[in-house]
Amino acid sequence: QVQLVESGGGLVQAGGSLRLSCVASGRTFSIYAMGWFRQAPGKEREFVAAITWNSGNAYHADSVKGRFTISRDNAKNTVTLQMNSLKPEDTAVYSCAAARGRSFSWGRLMRGAEYDDWGQGTQVTVSS
């Protein structure tokens, strides 16, 4: 099992930036990829970005491409989501997740059901 703790959420004006971090502990050697998802009130959970743990290959949802960047620091067991040019529609609870053990296609990594471990989430609110 992998434990995940997010930090960095908060309130920001439209056009501003936030940096979310997710620290992993436990069986981190078993991680294949890490992902960020978000869920706004009354909406379904939405894929944001994912990154493979060893190679650092990254994939971003079209809705955030060019504004958000996912990265990882293996030495610190940390995945970061840099969010720039934030919009009110980015308001949501952001959660990081770990997919363990096996290899995945990007299509599968966009599905929350493929992830094994989840953090508690951090609120991001963007005011207009």
Low-pLDDT ranges: none
What is the 3D shape?
globular
For the report, how would you describe the main beta sheet? 7 strands, mixed
Give the helices and strands as they follow along the chain. EEEEEEEEEHEE
Mean pLDDT: 96
Strand content: over 45%
Radius of gyration: 14 Å
Classify the helix fraction into a percent range.
under 10%
Structural notes for this entry:
The protein contains 1 helix and 11 strands, in the order βββββββββαββ. The strands form 2 sheets. Strands 2, 4, 5, 6, 9, 10 and 11 form a 7-stranded mixed β-sheet that branches. It has a 4-stranded antiparallel β-sheet with strand order 1-3-8-7, with no helix packed on it. With 128 residues, the protein is mainly beta.
Note the topology.
Blueprint: E1 2-7, E2 10-13, E3 18-26, E4 31-39, E5 46-52, E6 58-60, E7 68-73, E8 78-83, E9 92-100, H1 106-109, E10 117-118, E11 122-127
Parallel strand pairs: 2-11
Antiparallel strand pairs: 1-3, 3-8, 4-5, 4-9, 5-6, 7-8, 9-10, 9-11
What keywords describe this structure?
3% helix, globular, mainly beta, 11 strands
The gist of it:
The chain is mainly beta.
